[in-house]
Amino acid sequence: MNAVAAELNTLLADYQVHYQKLRNYHWNVRGPLFFGLHVKFEELYTTAALRVDALAERVLALGGAPLSTLAGQLARARLVEDEGRPDAQGMVANTLADLEALNASLRAASAHAAGAGDDTTVNLLQPFIDEQEQTAWMLRAFLG
Ligand SMILES: [Fe+2]
């Protein structure tokens, strides 16, 4: 498979783990911050699901095969699932760490795509980076 497509598949796998962690947090957040965070986590997992789809379809456009099973995605992902029960602040801190890791991975993938002359992939990834930079700032502000 095209090296850019392979890297996009790894990103896809990371976003699937990110998505499921956000669903976990949406369901299990407790305490006085519930109402705000329940909604915020839903907003973030909805965005993550759209990114999984966009990445899969770019892999296909590049002639590759998107990682389409949970087992395959978990085996490939660099992000790790949350087996614990963090409190609300911990959920936000973990989400921030995942977004920062995703942005580092997106920047690396974008640089490799640029090196391969794949401007379409560069253009696909840049809005993800831009939006996640803003979200990361907000989550840092939340954490104080
Ligand atoms: Fe819900």
What is the fold's blueprint, element by element?
Elements: H1 3-28, H2 34-61, H3 70-76, H4 88-115, H5 119-143
Helix pairs in contact: 1-2, 1-3, 1-4, 4-5
The structure holds fe (ii) ion.
Description:
The protein is an all-alpha fold and 144 residues long. The protein has one domain: Up-down Bundle (Ferritin). 79% of the residues lie in helices and 0% in strands. The protein is built from five helices and no strands. It has helices spanning 3-28, 34-61, 70-76, 88-115, 119-143. Helix 1 packs antiparallel against helix 2, helix 1 (3-28) crosses helix 3 (70-76) and helix 4 (88-115) packs antiparallel against helix 5 (119-143). It starts with a helix and ends with a helix.
Helix share of residues? over 70%
- The named CATH superfamily: Ferritin, core subunit, four-helix bundle
How many strands, what sense, and barrel or not for the largest sheet?
A: none
Which CATH top level class fits? Mainly Alpha
Distance between the termini: 44 Å
Oligomer: single chain
Following the backbone from N to C, one meets helices and strands in this order, namely: HHHHH
Instruction: Count up the helices.
Output: 5
The averaged pLDDT comes out at: 97
CATH architecture: Up-down Bundle
| Ligand roster | fe (ii) ion
**How many domain units?**
1
